[in-house]
Design goal:
about 250 residues; alpha/beta; seven-stranded parallel beta sheet; 8 helices; about 15% strand; EC 1.1.1.175; 2-deoxy-D-gluconate 3-dehydrogenase activity; oxidoreductase
Length: about 250
C-alpha cells in the first residue's frame, strides 16, 4: 500500500469549482479521496473530473465571506460523507489598490474570506475530530505573500501572512491530538486570481524573468504537494508551509 494512497478518505475543499481548488480536488480524487466541494459557484466541471477519476463529489453551496454558514457546512459534510478526513482551506480573494487609497471594505472582505473563515472552518472541523477521538489533516493555501511583502495588496498580504502564522499556531495546539496542520504556498499560477497580472505586459515579463523555472505554474503543479500533506506520508509533518513556486523564494 502506498503511503500516499487516500482511498476511503473524504476531503472537504473550499473554492473547488475553479483554479487551484479544482486542481487540488482532482489530485486528491486521483489519489483515492472522495470530495466535498464547498463554495459559491457550482463545481460542475470539477464534479466531472472527480467522477472521471472514479471518485464521488458532493457539493455544498456556501458563501465563506462570513462565518454564518460554517456550522451548517460541517454538519452537511459529515452527513454526506460520514466523516471528513482532510480539510483544504483554499477559497480566497484579492483586492488591489495603493495602500494610501485602500478602503476598509477591501480590507474586511479579504481578511474575512481568506483568514477568518479559514480559522473558524478549521475549528469546526477539528471539533468533529476531537469529539470522535480521531485525527485529520488541514491544509491552508497560503501564498508567496505569506513570506514577502508584495505591493498594492495590503489586506491580501496581511491575510496570507496571518494564515501562515495560524498554520503554525494550530499545529502547535493540535499536533498531539493527531491533527496535522500545514500550508502550501503557491508561487505564480495561471488562474482567475492572477489574470490582472498576466494581462499587464510589463508585470508579466518581470514575474516570468524572476521565476527560476521560467514559466507560470499550472494548477496541476500543486496536486502532488496536496496529496503528500493529506496522506500518511506526512504523518510527522506539522506546521510547515511548503512552497510550490518554481523556485521563486530561492531567488
Ligand atoms: P480563483 O481562480 O479566483 O479561485 C478562488 C476560489 O475561491 C473560487 O472557487 C472562488 O469561488 C472561491 N471563493 C472566493 N470567495 C469565496 C467566498 N466568499 N465563498 C466561497 N468561495 C469563495 O483563484 P485561485 O488562484 O485558484 O486561488 C485559490 C487560492 O490560492 C486562494 O486562496 C488564493 O489566494 C491562493 N493563491 C493563488 C495563487 C495564484 O497564483 N493563483 C498564488 C498564491 C495563492 P467563485 O468562483 O464562486 O468566486
Amino acid at each position: 500500500m502506498s503511503p500516499f494512497d487516500l482511498s476511503g478518505r473524504t476531503a472537504l475543499v473550499t473554492g473547488a469549482n475553479t483554479g487551484l481548488g479544482q486542481a487540488i480536488a482532482v489530485g486528491l480524487a486521483e489519489a483515492g479521496a472522495d470530495i466535498v466541494a464547498v463554495g459559491r459557484s457550482a463545481p460542475t466541471e470539477t464534479a466531472t473530473m472527480v467522477e472521471a477519476a472514479g471518485r464521488k463529489l458532493h457539493a455544498i453551496s456556501a458563501d465563506l465571506s462570513s462565518t454564518a454558514p460554517i456550522a451548517g457546512v460541517v454538519a452537511q459534510a459529515v452527513e454526506a460523507a460520514s466523516a471528513i478526513d482532510i480539510l483544504v482551506n483554499n477559497a480566497g480573494i484579492i483586492r488591489r489598490n495603493d495602500s494610501l487609497d485602500f478602503t476598509e471594505e477591501d480590507w474586511d472582505a479579504v481578511m474575512d474570506t481568506n483568514l477568518k473563515s479559514a480559522f473558524f472552518l478549521s475549528q469546526a472541523v477539528a471539533r468533529t475530530w476531537v469529539g470522535a477521538n480521531r485525527g485529520g489533516k488541514i491544509i491552508n493555501i497560503c501564498s508567496m505573500l505569506s513570506f514577502q511583502g508584495g505591493i498594492r495588496v495590503p489586506s491580501y498580504t496581511a491575510s496570507k501572512s496571518g494564515l501562515a502564522g495560524l498554520t503554525r499556531l494550530l499545529a502547535c495546539e493540535w499536533a498531539a491530538k493527531g491533527i496535522n496542520v500545514n500550508g502550501i504556498a503557491p508561487g505564480y499560477f495561471s488562474t482567475n486570481n492572477t489574470e490582472a497580472l498576466r494581462a499587464d505586459e510589463s508585470r508579466n515579463r518581470d514575474i516570468l524573468a524572476r521565476i527560476p523555472a521560467g514559466r507560470w505554474g499550472d494548477p496541476s503543479d500543486l496536486s502532488g504537494a496536496a496529496v503528500f500533506l493529506a496522506s500518511d506520508a506526512a504523518a510527522y509533518v506539522h506546521g510547515t508551509v511548503l512552497a510550490v513556486d518554481g523556485g521563486w523564494l530561492a531567488r
